[in-house]
Design goal:
Blueprint lengths: L1 H9 L3 E3 L11 E3 L1 H20 L4 E3 L8 H6 L2 H4 L1 E6 L6 E3 H7 L9 H10 L14 E4 L2 E4 L9 E4 L4 H5 L2 H8 L5 E10 L14 E11 L4 H19 L6 E5 L11 E9 L2 E10 L3 H10 L5 E2 L6 E2 L2 E8 H12 E4 L6 E4 L10 E5 L5 H18 L2 E3 L5 H11 L3 E5 L1 H4 L8 E6 L5 E5 H12 L1
Parallel strand pairs: 3-9, 19-20, 19-21
Antiparallel strand pairs: 1-2, 4-5, 4-6, 7-8, 9-10, 10-16, 11-12, 12-13, 13-16, 14-15, 17-18, 21-22, 22-23
Helix pairs in contact: 2-11, 5-6
The chain binds adenosine-5'-triphosphate (ATP).
């Protein structure tokens, strides 16, 4: 994990938030390469789950919403984590995490059970002090909207993107008239005042979610739930999260939220342990019913066959974007070779790699090589978008630098390209990141050659 974090900082993927001011706990900034990787993943998700499908509709709802949304959804009353405080240092911890660290399973425990388990087992804080009673802590950040700060102006930074879709259900039904089953998809920021942010971008206070609310007829939910399990694995294949590192955790009946009939977590073997990557939940028609009741606006579709009003049931696949990035980076990170031959390589899927190609002249001080390479660089940029340039140091070092950031192909313009060996005029070497092999390819064939390789 330390090597990965250091690579992320050194090469411009992810920085500590507000770093020059000493940081702000639980916030991270994506740098030039990280934001490219993030955008590629977002675009791949949007394409796979929204634009490539006929039953999906995208939305992009406001982060600030009417406070009644969060009352109806249950977040004002219940979006809480169990908090326990070191009575001496006043440092706060997640009580369930403290129990897990002491090999006690907190699932199904209420606050009293947790307090009792902590005291009965003599569990002390990491600083060796006694803990107080376990109590709840609401994780929503609140703010006031407008110039007047009173009860009525309270709003929250959304702790999930899901509610933005439920409250737009009627708008989409009235404007696009979708038929069941259909879904809404959204990518956006979510904010949670996590008691103990940790493990790099895994648990932050500001993060991004890619979520789907998929509406079905009640009797169809089981089949659709299985379809979503398959689609979620296909997504992991697409971005390079190996299925062998993913484990399904069926949430036990007694631990399900009261509105859920089935919830499955997809856990990933992160470098710091097996933890939740994604979730899939069958939420019945709880959310639409609650919002309909609270807002007094009917949230339903009209069944074509029976002309009856139906409140659809909902299946929710949820994907944390930052956890995706971490899982993708951890899966792609490899160290190979020994001594001087040692290299770090990020074996990212070409479709999500920050740079698709790097173009280099063999030598920097030869104008003919530079001109030819520059022209090729611009041509490649037109085709592949993000193509980088490197003319620094020797070729071996340049390859190492590109390996480390996951650039799948390096193209070198050399004297043969210029026609020193007439057979090789207008050809370049293309070096493959994963195998290290080089091939000579005609510039006229380069686009097709690379496109085939990147499939
Ligand atoms: P956890 O149990 O790890 O706190 P959760 O069950 O509360 O997660 P959900 O409410 O299901 O998480 O959120 C949906 C997804 O959003 C998660 O599967 C995860 O990928 C992501 N996510 C949740 N909390 C965070 C966070 N603090 N930082 C980064 N990503 C998060």
């Amino acid at each position: 994990m330390e090597q990965l974090i250091s690579l992320c900082k050194r090469r411009g993927f992810i920085f500590q938030g507000s770093e020059i001011y000493g940081g702000l706990a639980g916030t991270w900034d994506y740098g030039p390469l990280g934001s490219e990787l993030k955008r590629n993943i977002q675009n791949a998700w949007w394409k796979m789950f929204v634009t490539d499908r006929e039953d999906m509709y995208g939305v992009d709802a406001a982060i600030l919403m009417n406070q009644n949304v969060w009352k109806a959804s249950g977040h004002v009353g219940g979006f809480v984590d169990p908090l326990v405080e070191d009575l001496v240092t006043k440092k706060r911890y997640r009580a369930d995490h403290i129990l897990e660290q002491n090999n006690i399973n907190p699932l199904g425990m209420n606050l009293d059970d947790m307090s009792k388990a902590i005291s009965d087992n003599g569990i002390k804080s990491p600083d060796g002090n006694v803990f107080g009673e376990v109590r709840t802590f609401n994780m929503m950040f609140h703010t006031n909207v407008g110039a007047i700060q009173d009860e009525t102006s309270i709003s929250y930074l959304r702790p999930e993107t899901a509610q933005g879709m439920f409250v737009n259900f009627k708008n989409v039904v009235d404007s696009l008239h979708p038929k069941l089953p259909f879904g809404l998809g959204q990518i956006g920021k979510a904010f949670r005042n996590e008691i103990a942010p940790r493990d790099f971008v895994f648990r932050s206070r500001e993060f991004e979610q890619m979520e789907i609310e998929y509406f079905v007829k009640e009797q169809d939910w089981e089949g659709r739930f299985s379809d979503w399990i398959n689609s979620m694995y296909e997504w992991m294949d697409l971005v390079g999260i190996p299925r062998s590192s993913v484990h399904e955790l069926e949430v036990a009946k007694e631990d399900l939220a009261h509105y859920s009939k089935r919830t499955m977590d997809f856990e990933f073997d992160f470098p710091f342990g097996r933890k939740e990557l994604y979730g899939l939940a069958y939420r019945t028609n709880f959310d639409l019913n609650n919002h309909a009741e609270a807002s007094k606006v009917g949230l339903y579709v009209v069944d074509d066959e029976t002309s009856e009003k139906v409140v659809p049931h909902c299946i929710e696949p949820t994907f944390g974007l930052d956890r995706t990035i971490l899982a993708v980076l951890a899966s792609a990170y490899h160290e190979e070779g020994e001594g001087d031959d040692k290299r770090i390589v990020l074996k990212l899927k070409p479709s999500i790699a920050p740079y698709k190609v790097c173009v280099s002249p063999l030598l920097r001080n030869k104008p003919e090589l530079m001109d030819k390479a520059r022209a090729l660089h611009s041509a490649m940029k037109k085709v592949f978008g993000n193509v980088t340039w490197d003319d620094n140091g020797n070729i071996g070092k340049r390859y190492r630098r590109q390996d480390e950031i996951g650039t799948p192909y390096c193209i070198v313009v050399d004297f043969d390209t210029l026609g020193e060996n007439t057979d090789l005029l207008d050809t370049v070497t293309v070096r493959d990141r994963d195998t290290g092999t080089q091939e000579r390819v005609a510039i006229s064939n380069l686009e097709q050659f690379l496109k085939e390789k990147m499939q």
